[in-house]
Design brief:
The protein has 6 helices and 5 strands; from the N terminus they run αααβββαββαα. By secondary structure, the protein is of the alpha+beta class. The protein has a 5-stranded antiparallel sheet with strand order 1-2-3-5-4.
């Protein structure tokens, strides 16, 4: 059986009624949907945020390493340039961070905003933490603060109707741009 061309109507399974929608396939999202690389038991041994710092920066998509926290590109971004600030320590709850961790997470978040603005002229940001699975944390066992750049008009039909996000460049290329800019912009602190 061959796949329909992008212009052919797709017949809905079991219904038999063409829906006249075009399809934009995003197979890379299947790993996220299946929960691949997501820790099953919440322990540090299975935690990707605990494994990432042992990788080379390029391989782990690490943009910057601080003393007690690091900045990494989100492998499944909400928007282009979506960063996360994570403590090295395997801790789930923001209230359980040390003063040093909380201060560095805040400082790295501010610098991340400056870096993203310098590289991609973001108009604004969504910044936040989802505390616990019930609050939407994909990996609830390890605290991570999201730094999501936003641009005027960035929520067009693609994510809303097409349920697809478009990324203008490879994550490794974005990581390289941000890491280089971090050295420049981060020195301004």
């Amino acid at each position: 059986m061959t796949a329909p061309s992008p212009r052919e109507p797709v017949i809905q399974s079991g219904i038999g009624v063409p829906d006249d929608l075009e399809r934009l396939w995003t197979p890379h999202r299947l790993a996220y949907i299946r929960g691949e690389n997501k820790p099953q038991d919440g322990t540090a041994a299975q935690c990707p945020f605990c494994r990432i710092p042992s990788m080379a920066d390029e391989h782990g998509l690490i943009v910057h390493r601080g003393e007690v926290a690091f900045v990494v590109l989100n492998l499944y971004p909400y928007a282009p340039g979506h960063l996360m600030v994570c403590p090295y320590r395997h801790v789930a709850d923001y209230a359980e961070t040390t003063d040093e961790e909380a201060a560095e997470i805040a400082d790295l978040t501010r610098t991340a905003m400056r870096v993203v603005r310098s590289v991609s002229s973001a108009d604004g940001f969504n910044i936040g933490m989802n505390q616990g699975a019930v609050a939407g944390a994909g990996i609830a066992a390890h605290l991570h603060q999201h730094v999501v750049p936003r641009w005027l008009g960035d929520q067009n039909f693609m994510p809303i109707i097409g349920r697809t996000k478009t990324l203008p460049e490879l994550l490794v290329d974005t990581r390289d741009l941000f890491a280089q800019a971090w050295d420049r912009v981060g020195d301004d602190d």
